[in-house]
Amino acid sequence: MSRIVVTPLSVVTDVIRRHQPSHVVTLLSPEHMIETPTGFPADRHLRLGINDVIDAAAGDNPPERSHVEALLDFSRTWSGGDPMLVHCWAGVSRSMAATFTILCDRLGPGSETRVAQAIRQRAPHAYPNALLVRYADELLDRRGRMIEAIKAIGAGTMVAEGAIVEFPLREL
């Protein structure tokens, strides 16, 4: 089934075994970056070494526009026949912003609010990284709609680690 599965790092191996994704997106700080899981094709594993910061001047390795360009390019190679796994350290911020980006790209202009609301409904803990969303909004020419949609759903419930969340494309 065509779906995106979002997880924290702690359950990636189990989720790969259970869901058998065709593509994996890893968003971790460079010092915590993982290798491609054993047996998984390296060309279907996008590894983005970024920290979870929302101000490009606030720390080392912030998200950059080029990271979102790479995410969009990679996600467009996904046929949707098998799941895509998207994860970061906690499954709360970077991975949710990446999922929001991929879904908005797939569903087209005008889907921003619907996708943000689906994220909030399925993931009360989601707090998509605002800097990643800002770059995605620019690259997808959404004229601030992605930024406003994420602001509208708020910060979410504080958690140390998110749960496994599925986003079936046909339900969005």
How would you describe what is shown here?
With 172 residues, the chain is of the alpha/beta class. Helix content is 37%, strand content 15%. The chain has one domain: Protein-Tyrosine Phosphatase, Chain A. It has a five-stranded mixed β-sheet, sandwiched between helices. The two termini are 13 Å apart. 41% of the residues are buried.
Please tag this protein with its features.
15% strand; 172 residues; 6 helices; alpha/beta; five-stranded mixed β-sheet; globular
Show the helix and strand layout.
Blueprint: E1 3-8, H1 12-19, E2 23-28, E3 45-49, H2 65-75, E4 84-88, H3 94-107, H4 112-122, H5 130-139, H6 145-153, E5 165-168
Parallel strand pairs: 1-4, 2-3, 2-4
Antiparallel strand pairs: 1-5
Helix pairs in contact: 2-3, 2-5, 3-4, 3-5, 4-6, 5-6
The share of residues in extended strands comes to 15-25%
Q: Provide the domain count.
A: 1
What share of residues is helical? 25-40%
What structural class do helix, strand and pairing data support?
A: alpha/beta
How many E-type strands? 5
Q: For this structure, what is the CATH homologous superfamily?
A: Protein tyrosine phosphatase superfamily
| Largest beta-sheet details | 5 strands, mixed
Task: Please sum up the structure shown.
The protein is an alpha/beta fold. It has helices at residues 12-19, 65-75, 94-107, 112-122, 130-139, 145-153; strands at 3-8, 23-28, 45-49, 84-88, 165-168.
